[in-house]
Every structure is written in C-alpha cells, then in structure tokens.
Fold:
Amino acid sequence: MVDRLKIAVLFGGRSGEHEVSLASARSVMSALDPAKYEIIQVGITRQGAWIVGADVLAALQSEAFEGTQPVALFPDPTRRGLWDIENLEESARLHLFSRVDVVFPVLHGTFGEDGTLQGLLELADVPYVGCGALASAVAMDKVLFKDVCKAHKLPMAAYVGVSRRRWEHEPQAVLDEIERELTYPLFTKPANLGSSVGISKCRGRSDLLEGLHEAARYDRRILVEKAVPAAREIEVSVLGNEAPSASVPGEVIPSREFYDYAAKYLDEGARASQLLIPAPISAALTEQVRELAVRAYRAIDGAGMARADFLLDGESGALYLNELNTIPGFTKISMYPKLWEATGIPYSQLLSWLIDLALDRHGENRRSERVYRPTA
Ligand SMILES: Nc1ncnc2c1ncn2[C@@H]1O[C@H](COP(=O)(O)OP(=O)(O)O)[C@@H](O)[C@H]1O
Ligand SMILES: [Mg+2]
Structure:
C-alpha cells in the first residue's frame, strides 16, 4: 500500500473566529479521503498553545484539555514535524516526533489567515494549503489590499486609510480629510479583522466619530469607505496557483441591514442569511465577476484558494471588489465549497486539489536558489 500523506489540520487559534474555525475543521476532517490521507489533528488554543491528542477538536470545543499533549513545530527545517515539547530529548533520540507532509491551516482571522502562520511554515519548509505569507498578509489588511488593487486598476468603493495614532492626535484634521474625500454614508472598519467585527455604517459626523472610535479598539489601522448604495453581496471562489480559475458566483442575502456578525453567525433557521447559488445576475456580469476575482488573486500573488467578495450597486449596477478571504469559511454549507460544488467539484475532491496545489507551490518555491556564489 502506498504511504498515505500525513496532513496536519490546524484549527482553533488566537482569533475572534476561533469557533468558526472549529466548525470548518470538523467538515474538512470528515471529508479528507482516508485512503489517501492520514489526519493529524492539531488544535491551537485561544492562548496559542498547540496540542494533539485523540480528539483535540472536542477538547477545544469543550475547553477540557485532559488527555491532550502540547507539541511544537520548529522554524528549523532540520527538525521536521511535530515535537513532543515536554519530552524533547527523548523524542529526538527515539525519533518519536510525528512526520508532517502537508499542513492544512483551517484557521480564520488573526494568526492563521494573516501571513504570520504562513511565515512559520515557510521557515519550517513544510508544504501548506492556501496563500503564502505575502498574499495572506496583503489580503488581511483592508487598506493595503485596496492600495494594491488600486494599482491594478480594479474597481473599488472610494476609501481613505487612517492611522489610530493620527486619529487620536488630530481628530479634527482626520474628520475634515475624510469628509473632503468621501460622502456619507460611510463604513468604518478595523483594517485587520474579519467577521464584520468593529465595522459600523455611518450616516453623518457623529456616527463617524463613533465608528472611528469603535474601529480603533481593534486595530492601529482603520479603513473608511464610501457605502455602496443598496449593496448586493456577490461572492466567487478562486482556486489554483499559477493558473487560477473562478467558480460560478453566488449571492448572499443578509438577514440584517448589512452582513454584520449577527447576520453571519447568529441568525438561524428562517431568520438566517440566505445563499443563492448561482447568483441571479446576468451572464455578462457573471463573467465580469469571475475575471475581476482572478485578476485580484493574481495581483496579490494568491495561491491555493481565496473567496473574492464583491459589492454590487443595487441602483447603478456598478460592481466593486470588496475583499479577498484567503481562508474562507469551509463547512460543507459554506459559500466557498458550495460554489465549487455548483461548478462541478465536490467537497472531497476540492480538498485533494488544495493539497496537490500545496505540494506544487512548495516544489515551485524550492526551485529558487537560496545561495548565491559570485563567480568572478
Ligand atoms: N462599502 C460598503 N458598502 C456597503 N456595504 C458594505 C461596505 N463595506 C462593507 N459593507 C458591509 O459590511 C460587511 C462586512 O464588511 P467586509 O469589508 O466584508 O468585512 P469582513 O472582513 O469583516 O467581512 C459586508 O459584507 C457588507 O455587508
Ligand atoms: Mg466580508
């Protein structure tokens, strides 16, 4: 029998989206083909500890950690795999540490989706699913992402980046600047967060003051953006490395005024936000969405996967790129895999594809020479 690939599935994490990650990981682990893959569950606690054990997912869910064991992945490619950090010498002598062929980070938000983990995985020289450190970090920072997309002439709602320090030191100048550049209603957002946390819709100056204050709780960097009128939320899945392709687009019908935290995760049953797949938009708009998604993905040097989210002006029909999510929600009923399913790639096959892409990108990176020896 061929040796199965050992896939370390990482979940949980030091992020506001800890629970969302557990739900995504449960789906991913139940669908990885057991004939091809051996799963190593690696849970990351809210404090950032890495643990393994028989059912780490259940341990994280119930926050009862008996029977789990701390492990570490070293940023040192000469010490590969997961190490039992309470018995380091012993595990080194007996080669007890666990081999890892591919890491599958199913972590949303900070310290999982933002390039920090990807940096560690680069140092450790282990193949991993999804975008690299650069693409992850750029996609996570809403201001930098927009700056990059602007350079690539992708259509976006008008925006202004604000630093928290400057906002605190010269609020009047900041307000004047925002009001000179943009017209109400506006959205204020912390630059590096997700799940709509810290986001406000502002209809006038007093809202804007509150919105900036709220966003500044979460980040040093703040994005202020013009609201897209009667916005429709169109999403499309992108998959691939050098030759990415886009799925059929879908539409989210939020259960609230906008797609806020409650609309994403709290409203259930008849009150829940709805996903329409495919999105009820024209063939021409469908093509435009798919093309822009791939262009944005290439602009940030995307790899593996990302979900591209657009806002469609319900009045004028203008389309705006809103963001790329490099580790989108991954439960079986999440938009990213559902869109691929509608495009003809079933969930399990999508996971295999992502693992192949991880190996491909790792191989491609390894082709680059790391040592330069001048000849003259
Ligand atoms: N410029 C905008 N115009 C209209 N609605 C917006 C705008 N920006 C954000 N929203 C609403 O807020 C939601 C969350 O904003 P988003 O930028 O996607 O942040 P997150 O990363 O938290 O998902 C969007 O899905 C949309 O409903
Ligand atoms: Mg969003």
In short: DSSP finds 13 helices and 16 strands in the chain. The pocket of magnesium ion (ligand 2) is lined by residues 309, 323 (CB under 6 Å).
